[in-house]
Amino acid sequence: MDNGKIELAILRPDAMPAQVHKVATDVMQGGFAGIVVAPVYVARVVTLLRGSGATVTAPVNYPHGTSKPTLKAIEATSCLKDGADAVLIVPHLPNVLRGDFDAMRAELLEIARAARATRRDVQMHVLIERITDEPSIAVACRAIRESACDGIVVSDAFPLVRKHAESLVVIALGTVSDGSLIDRVIETAS
Predict the structure, then answer these.
(1) Is residue 67 scored above 90 in pLDDT?
(2) Residue of 155 and 66 predicted with greater confidence
């Protein structure tokens, strides 16, 4: 199994600093690609991982995505100023479920503009969960592409997302207890 393609995450709201430090240490020692960590820990983890080659991704408005786009833009830029390499945006779920292209695109554009003004080379990915129907997936992929975001993160409907992603990076999200799931996802992505 190639750990260089896997990011570890610690997003539990009750995660203590020592637990975050342990996961960051695991990232460095295990040769993982990076870590996804709550915004409150970004600056600390960036300092800890400096020079390791591992990336730090900050989720924006995780897990619910219910804040206004302006607040999400502020959170994204704050994380980038703290040194995050990437942001993982959680869009407003009702817009995704309704397949409301205009609302999704407008929300993501506001966040993307603020993030790119802060750090031009930032990677921006959008977390899409709970949609498995093809029309909604197609609309979500189009809104993500047209908002200048770089990728889509999904836990379901991976083949359908790949079908509509076009230029987007597609990232599989999941909990892994052994390498078999990772191997299947990497095989599907290839």
Answers:
(1) yes
(2) 66
Backbone angles phi, psi at 148, to 5 degrees: 70, 20
Residues 6+ apart with CB under 8 A from 53: none
Nearest to 103 by CA among 64, 142, 135: 142
Q: How many domains does the chain have?
A: 1
- In terms of residue numbers, what domain contains 67? 3-189
Structure tokens at 187: 């095989």
Degrees to nearest 5, angle at CA 149 with 44 and 81: 25
- Note the helical H segments in the chain: 17-30, 42-49, 69-81, 93-98, 101-118, 134-146, 158-165, 179-189
| Mean pLDDT across the chain | 90
CATH label of the domain that carries residue 57:
3.20.20.70
Work out the number of other CB atoms within 10 angstroms of the CB of residue 151.
19
- List pLDDT tens digits, range 136-148: 999 999 999 999 9
Is residue 108 within 8 Å of 145, Cβ to Cβ?
Answer: no
